[in-house]
Automatic annotation (TrEMBL):
GO MF annotation, one: FMN binding
Alphabetized SUPFAM superfamilies for the sequence: Flavoproteins
Native organism: Streptococcus peroris ATCC 700780
Oxidoreductase in keyword set: yes
Entry-linked Pfam families: Flavodoxin_NdrI
Entry's transmembrane regions: none
Flavodoxin-like domain mapped to chain residues: 11-162
Keywords from the UniProt entry: Oxidoreductase
Name assigned to this protein: Putative NrdI-like protein
Length: 162
């Protein structure tokens, strides 16, 4: 049993969920990852909980993936300004200490009805911090989105199938 723990990989999913859509996706993704891959621990870090409880941000000790919904005010995502609202604590967390260098990438979510603003916050974080947009999903995401993102995470963390 101890030998198994030595090979255990920690997968960290950092996110913020305001309407419950991102929370639902990350929870289903965690379950799927645990069902499909061996020797993994999946950690969910909800930035909203840190802010709500007045906890200080902390430096991540391992690589992580960020999940970020899009909440914007104003602009159209093409030729005039927009202001990120409600999700800014995620940017503050990534900017804290050395966290940006440990981020493997961002998964954006949103509503395709918003056209060019769909997943715009994730694209802006990618540019700001220099990590890739790994994937996107609409609203709560479908099983296909879960499988796609799980495959990307499996490649990034070099996970082994069960």
């Amino acid at each position: 049993m101890e030998k198994e723990n030595i090979n255990m990989k920690k997968v960290s999913l950092v996110y913020i969920s305001l309407s419950g859509n991102t929370e639902s996706f990350v929870t289903r993704l965690k379950t799927y990852l645990l069902e499909q891959y061996k020797n993994i621990e999946v950690e969910k870090i909800h930035i909203k909980d840190l802010v709500k409880e007045g906890e200080d941000f902390f430096e991540m000790t391992n690589p992580y993936v960020v999940f970020l919904p899009t909440y914007l005010e104003g602009g159209n995502g093409v030729d005039n300004g927009d202001v990120e609202i409600l999700t800014t604590p995620v940017g503050d967390f990534i900017a804290y200490g050395d966290n940006a260098s440990k981020c493997l990438g961002v998964v954006g979510s949103g509503n395709r009805n918003f056209n060019n603003q769909y997943c715009l916050t994730a694209k802006q974080y990618s540019q700001r911090f220099g990590f890739p947009v790994l994937a996107d999903f609409e609203m709560r995401g479908m099983l296909g989105d879960i499988k796609k993102v799980a495959g990307i995470i499996a490649d990034l963390y070099e996970l082994e199938d069960l």
